[in-house]
Specification:
alpha/beta, five-stranded mixed beta sheet, 12 strands
Length: 193
């Protein structure tokens, strides 16, 4: 706002002396404000899912227009403290609603958060079709066991998994050519559209 006032004052001064400078300055100012507004609108209307790298915490965040939901196992307050600058900078609600559901859908994308060991050793008649599986809390012990439950394109390993489990899954995914993202090794995973 202060910069705007300075520019308008300068434009008024120049207008008195030479009208062409004032028109050029005001025209460029209008274009800049339009670009700034469109950019802000685009950022605020973006939807996505993020898996954060917060040590020992399984945190999946679904955000978008008027939506800020957090599925978290661990210290949810710590997650909010770490991530709230991202929310504020993108004009999302500054506090998240905690959700319990393991399946996230945004548009045509589906993401499943698996943190429960009760599915170990189980096999589905028909694997659940999802785009991404987020694995946390060492819930499953091998890729083949996970593929017996889900049909997916990408695996995201959150920071609540032990280093042994993360290493094993990275190796197994690499061997079969499946995309795998380890948030501890590679940083937060974000999918936006």
């Amino acid at each position: 706002l202060c910069a705007y006032c300075v520019v308008v004052s300068l434009a008024m001064f120049l207008y008195r002396n030479d009208g062409r400078w004032a028109r050029t300055l005001l025209g460029s100012l209008i274009v800049a404000f339009l670009a700034w507004g469109v950019n802000g609108y685009c950022l605020a209307s973006q939807e996505g899912v993020a898996v954060y790298n917060i040590r020992g915490v399984s945190a999946v965040n679904r955000y978008g227009v008027g939506r800020n939901e957090l599925s978290c196992e661990g210290d949810g307050t710590r997650v909010c403290d770490v991530v709230s600058p991202f929310w504020v900078s993108h004009n999302y609600p500054s506090s998240a609603t905690l959700v319990e559901e393991p399946l996230f859908s945004l548009g045509e994308k589906r993401l499943y958060c698996l943190r429960d060991t009760s599915l170990r050793g189980k096999e589905a008649r028909q694997p659940l079709q999802v785009d991404v599986v987020v694995l946390g809390k060492d819930a499953i012990s091998s890729l083949s066991e996970l593929q017996a439950l889900f049909s997916f394109r990408q695996l995201v390993l959150d920071s609540s998994n032990s280093w042994r489990v993360r290493r094993r899954f990275r190796r197994e995914c690499e061997a079969v050519g499946l995309a795998c993202h380890d948030v501890v090794a590679e940083g937060a995973w974000v999918m936006s559209w």
